[in-house]
Design brief:
Order of helices and strands: HHHHH
Radius of gyration: 13 Å
Shape: globular
Distance between the termini: 30 Å
């Protein structure tokens, strides 16, 4: 795994697994800390976080909730990125801050 990808995953995992995190606080935290990050990289990190959490905390309700939170935000972001890609020519230029206002 590339170092930038690994660092992004660590940031996302910390945000997803922070105590009392819900969908709004997760989106706000990531927008505030990663607004200039490529949206596709953040979506990848959210899906990787989902996988890591499920593999690490298999069978625990807390792990399933955190994983679902990561997966749900990734799904929301990919839909928004797809919608925006029809307006912009280059999906690689879509930043997280463009999707989470």
């Amino acid at each position: 795994m590339r170092k930038d990808t690994e660092a992004l995953l660590e940031t996302v995992l910390a945000a997803v697994m922070a105590p009392e995190t819900d969908a709004l606080s997760l989106a706000t935290t990531l927008r505030n800390s990663l607004a200039d990050a490529p949206a596709i990289a953040v979506i990848r990190a959210l899906l990787a976080a989902d996988q890591v959490i499920l593999e690490t905390f298999a069978g625990t309700s807390t792990g399933r909730v955190d994983a679902e939170l990561a997966r749900s935000l990734a799904f929301t972001l990919v839909k928004a990125a797809d919608d925006l890609s029809h307006i912009r020519d280059d999906l690689n230029r879509v930043r997280l801050g463009d999707l989470l206002l």
